[in-house]
Design goal:
The structure is a single chain. The protein is built from 19 helices and 12 strands. The protein has 460 residues and is α+β, with helices and mostly antiparallel strands. The protein has a domain of 111 residues. It has a 5-stranded mixed beta sheet with strand order 1-2-8-5-3. It has a 3-stranded antiparallel beta sheet with strand order 4-12-9. Helix 7 packs across helix 8. It starts with 16 loop residues before the first helix and ends with a strand. The protein binds protoporphyrin IX containing FE. Protoporphyrin IX containing FE (HEM) binds next to helix 14, helix 15 and helix 19.
Length: 460
């Protein structure tokens, strides 16, 4: 029977202490909560009641069983000023309809088509590298995944246009710190320089995107990219065209408006590159520092590819590459925590969550839990051999979230990470300075604070 009392947790007389500790070292704060208080804890952060949960069954309760008792947390509410009512930020019933409309763009057959772009771009980036060159692998992976998402989204338009969107978006992202400030919603309409710059950058981005949408609507063709899919998507559940005017009007309603297309395109652009880039950046670091895993990966790439570039059809044969990347996602999950705000009283394990409570669950903490991973701090791709994944509870590993809000781009991200790594690691080895360990910076995504500075060595 659920209890009305609060779970245990840190209580300080000094106001703001939890908020300070959370902001100073988020990962340590969450790991400490799990270590000291166990599967569920309670604390207040800047006036907000928070439950922190740390058990696969509790996570399943929030993301699946009682998902309709929650909405997205504050960070994503704030992101609405950039992303509008796109998939990441919208709530039902909008979310349900939008998910139905966007889903076909991520069908397996479509992703295979994007796979060719992924290999082409990775090879193009690799062609600019030379033996002994020093690069920041994190920055390079960011540029690569940004170029790929630009091409797969707006591919049929010129590269200059995809670049234009990328540049306008980068300007805006430079202000993400401002965007995510508490109370920045209220600041936005004030005549402050930062608020003005934000509005200008957003207007610039919108101008480019609406121009592309208009041109594409006018041409009416399926250009094979994500934007075409969004423009052509129709909501079957909203009625079919049987010839009369009313039905035709309804059919028009079945499509997304320009504003919805803009919101979804921007959401995919934003959600679709930094996460994968950080995953790959940490993958390069792990390869550089785990010579046994590196040798294993090279053996597989040489055997399967035999010197040629990979193709999307190679993905199922790259078994070790997938195990290796699974382990990178375990130890360095780019989405390191997700939050939900309760909108009604609901049960959670032995407790009751009152409305207005923020529930936080952390991939980073769960993926380092010794109950599910022996020697959790050791990097060991062999953990993922055979059916190992099926022997763990579902939410002991949830790099892509779960339930109705699970990442829509997981198949895209997997194909991209495998094909990029296969293309580049078959030809290049990276080495870091002996004393280098990446400092983790948990911002919007988990990233290496000072990048991954490496020296490149040609394998052949
Ligand atoms: C390593 C790569 C990625 C990781 C770790 C990741 C992680 C996640 C997670 C954890 C969520 C759920 C957030 C929540 O429950 O609040 C999510 C949602 C989402 N992701 Fe990803 N993602 C990745 C790549 C991508 C890519 C490549 C795309 C698109 C091309 C994408 C698009 C989205 C969208 C649109 C949502 C919102 C889905 C919805 O609510 O219906 N992601 N992602």
């Amino acid at each position: 029977m659920p209890k009305l009392i609060r779970p245990p947790g840190p209580r300080w007389v000094i106001p703001g202490k939890n908020l300070f500790a959370f902001q100073r070292d988020t990962l340590k704060f969450m790991l400490d909560l799990a270590r000291i208080y166990g599967d569920i804890s309670y604390f207040k952060m800047g006036g907000q009641k928070v439950y922190f949960i740390n058990h696969p069954n509790l996570i399943r309760d929030v993301l699946i069983t009682h998902h309709d008792a929650y909405i997205k947390g504050r960070v994503l509410q704030r992101a609405k000023r950039l992303l509008g009512e796109g998939l990441l930020t919208s709530e039902n019933p909008t979310h349900r309809r939008q998910r139905r409309l966007v889903q076909p763009a991520f069908h397996r057959a479509r992703i295979a088509g994007y796979g060719e772009v992924m290999v082409e771009y990775a090879a193009r980036f690799g062609a600019r590298w030379h033996d002994g060159m020093q690069i920041d692998a994190a920055r390079e992976m960011n540029r690569l995944t940004l170029a790929i998402v630009g091409k797969t989204l707006f591919g049929a338009n010129t590269e200059a246009e995809a670049d234009e969107v990328g540049t306008a978006l980068s300007n805006l992202l430079g202000m993400f710190g401002y965007l995510m400030l508490p109370f920045s919603e209220a600041l936005e309409n004030l005549p402050l320089p930062a608020a003005r710059r934000f509005r200008q950058a957003r207007a610039q981005l919108d101008t480019v995107i609406y121009r592309i949408i208009n041109e594409r609507r006018a041409s009416g063709e399926d250009a094979g990219d994500l934007l075409s899919m969004l423009l052509l998507a129709q909501d079957e559940e909203a009625g079919a065209d049987n010839g009369d005017d009313a039905a035709r009007d309804k059919k028009r309603d079945n499509r997304m408006s320009d504003v919805q297309i803009r919101d979804e395109a921007l959401t995919l652009f934003l959600a679709g590159h930094e996460t994968t880039a950080n995953w790959l950046a940490f993958a390069w670091y792990m390869l550089a520092t785990n010579t046994e895993a590196e040798a294993h990966l090279h053996e597989e790439l040489d055997r399967v590819l035999d010197g040629r570039l990979p193709m999307p059809a190679d993905v199922p044969s790259l078994v070790y590459t997938e195990m290796f990347l699974s382990e990178v996602l375990r130890v360095r999950p780019p989405a390191y925590a997700v939050g939900r705000l309760s909108i009604k009283e609901t049960a959670l394990g032995e407790y009751i969550v009152p409305p207005g409570t923020l529930v936080i669950m952390s991939q980073y903490v769960m993926h380092h839990d010794a109950r599910y991973y022996d020697e959790p701090d050791t990097f060991r791709p062999e953990r993922w051999a055979g059916d190992a994944r099926d022997n763990r509870p579902q939410f002991a590993y949830f790099p892509f979230g779960g339930g109705a809000r699970r990442c829509i781009g997981d198949g895209f991200a997997w194909t991209e990470a495998i094909l990029i790594l296969a293309t580049l690691a078959a030809r290049w080895r990276m080495r870091v300075a002996p004393d280098f360990t990446p400092e983790l910076q948990p911002r919007i995504t988990l990233r290496p604070k000072h990048g991954i500075p490496v020296t490149l060595y040609a394998r052949r």
